[in-house]
User: What shape does this take?
Amino acid sequence: MGVEALELQGLSIRLGGTQILHDVTLNVPAGSFTCLLGPSGCGKTTLLRSIAGFAPPASGDIRLGARSIAALPPEKRGTAMVFQSYALWPHMTVAGNLTYPLKLRGVPRAEREARAEAMLEMLGLSGYGARKVANLSGGQRQRVALGRALIIDPPILLLDEPLSNLDAAIRRNLRGELRRLQQRLGITTIMVTHDQEEALAMADTIVLMRAGEVVQVAAPQDLYTRPADLDAGRFLGVDNVVVARPDDPVAGETLGFRSSDARIHAQPPQNSLIRHGTVQDCAYTGGGYHLQLASGAEVISAMSDVPVTPGSQVCVAVPTASLMAFGADQKLLPN
Amino acid sequence: MSTVHAPPSPLRGMLPGLLLIAPALLAIALLYVVPLARSVIFAFVDAEGGLTTAHLRTAIELYGRDLIFTVLVTLGSLALISVISIAIAGYLTLGATPWAVTALRWLYRWPLFIPFIVAGQTARSFLARNGLMNGLLIDSGLMDPALAQSLLDWRGLVLTFAWKQVPFVTLLLAGAMASVDRSTIEAARNMGAGRLRCLLQIVLPQVRGTLLVGLILSLVTILSVLSVPLMVIAGNPTMMTAMMAHRVTYYGDYAVANALGLFSYLITAVAAYVYLRMTLSQHKEGVR
Ligand SMILES: Nc1ncnc2c1ncn2[C@@H]1O[C@H](COP(=O)(O)OP(=O)(O)OP(=O)(O)O)[C@@H](O)[C@H]1O
Ligand SMILES: [Mg+2]
Assistant: This one.
């Protein structure tokens, strides 16, 4: 079917009398990998389901390539969705799950089987065709679900937290595999996740959502270094927020930074935010020591290469490049 | 304290369990197995107490046609019941018009609360040659009065049994369909399957065990209902229940009635076998 771009224009969704999505506008370029990132309950799944046709829009339009798909029933949209629970058909074999979408499209039997075989090969599941899906492991099911979506050559692939049910090792593995596969096939992909690490590692573009609204659309590096506001920053791991002082290297109402960027120094370095404080707690975290400091009324967390005894006075410094300045309205200030 | 503790006998260990199931076992034995065995035995015993197949032969000779009629009517009813219950339960599960689904959910259960005898009576006045149905059809101009015919034959039986059993099977089926993982249905629609395909190829295969249970229970009911054949059809051939009642009340001939009963047992036994085989294979799959 070829790769197509997706466009959401002022999309609003109401479910059970409450407004879930507010006026979402979004452009997903053809062939890109876009992640929907946001806290639980912010409407990521609902957005994906509305693209697939399972949540009728109250207003707005959904366009795939040149045509509007907002009024089409799910079976006419041609989007391929991988459900969070995989939703494999339990009464069919692995091969049956892969060939059924082709059967629906009237592909002749011999070709169906050949394509299912090729897909199993690509997914690293050769020889699993005759298995019942109930007898597969979580990772294998996830691959079958992915294969079932890919086998129809969809114009757009929708993934709803496809990796969240898996343990950390398989997850990291599949993350790379999924990304490589997407790049090889060049298929327009939207993936939902609430794991920022996953989004940063995989996406071309990240769409940050909050309470049914799009807060920020940016490339991973930009989102990580320049979150749109304090709340977005907190969601992306900015765990320190201090009130700015006149002698600080950047101006703003509050300054945010990550504890991994805050280091203990004997001599305060140049070009940095400097704070003094009393160590309250020191815990080993693998790569180094994580400290909690009391600095006046503020609590700062920082990293240190060596253990520090609680109670000692230290100086913590954050390089200017790692600082984010927020205004009185909590929005990020331009630098 | 010099007594040596004997190892507890296996029977001792089983005693509480045996006590617990004893009432149930006794009830099954007294109310079910004994009468069943008696009627099976008496189907083969002649007046002098010797073994004979005469009753069986008489039963086949006199009622062979009724037997085949019974089997065909039953199969016809079950086919109609399946089609209608699948359609109703499917609409309840996949229907897109909320008010229609709600209305249907309210309506379909009513026949459950109507006794068979009343159902038979209603069918009689509805399906007769000058009954309500033909009256409506003629009044509305849909049918030529000369073509009006009575449906009080095998068709009346099939319709009445279906009308009475559809709500029951639908109730079971709709419950099972409601517990099917909805995302499997959504996945099918997402892959391009329309509603009807979803029903037949995704939902139905996942609830076929429940459908089979409903049909087997309906089969047993149809084979044991006396009032419907008595009310709906007159003359020959008729259902086996009516013939058995006739044999007993008019001739006091329990032996041939027992022989007829034996055929009912055989039919239900086949159904029970199919059912057990299926549940066992499902169980095995679940264990694997
Ligand atoms: N059918 C529905 N009727 C009413 N409200 C709903 C319905 N489905 C979802 N919601 C509400 O919509 C909001 C967004 O739900 P959604 O499932 O899209 O969240 P999510 O971002 O995917 O969260 P998670 O990360 O936990 O999966 C939630 O507050 C939820 O309660
Ligand atoms: Mg979700």
Q: What stands out?
A: Chain B touches chain A through 19 residues (CB under 8 Å).
